[in-house]
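Support reply, case 0932

Customer input (verbatim):
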Amino acid sequence: MELFYSRDIASGGRMLDSQESAHCIRVLRHREGDQISIVDGAGCLYRCRILKADPAGLQFEVLEVVEGYGSHPYHLHMAVAPPKNPERFEWFAAKATEIGVDEITPLFGDYSERRVFKGDRIERLIVSSAKQSHKAALPLLHPAIGVRDFLSSVRGGGRFICYCGDTADLGAAKIPLTEALCDSQRDITVMIGPEGDFSHDEIALAVSLGWQIVSLGESRLRIETAALVATSAVYLKFV
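Our regenerated output:
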């Protein structure tokens, strides 16, 4: 089943934009009277009928609304430092959307080599990935934020910060993420640091604020690989 996306269908919009319309009419060759499925990015799928097969602005009527289409039984917020190569973060965002993520926040830490973040292309990739993986809800892409500000802003839920270094001098135990996850806590935030990892001061702040330090195993992982491993661990724990 091919899915289309409309950002305003929930508020009464009954026309696809030119890109979605052209794909539906010119590429997939749908015609007036055909039934199509449209997602709103907020979790609902709409079964619709084409009223006007215009590739510049397809018009439709809604036949049925399916709530919670393609949803998952947890809420995951991934906060990830963008790698030097922007395409690597884009790859993570697209794949995490396919698996199941609800919020994505780019982080700038003490050791970040990249200090500028542009999300326009990622937004488009998220829409494409959500449609491809049959999800009606799009993850929310937040503006970039500093590590310390993010640590202080998150309250409650399972808060996990991935760290490669030693934590003995902090008096904090580091445990595998798979052991830290529990059935009773499904509101989860995971932080992944930059190429140089989080600084000692950042980890010390995390510990003082009650974050759990976790590991993703013994392998040395790239940022986007670590982020996707964490996303997958949460998905496999709860689905």
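We compared this against your earlier run and they match. Two observations from our side: The chain has seven helices and twelve strands. The longest helix spans residues 223-238. Please reopen the case if you see a mismatch on your end.
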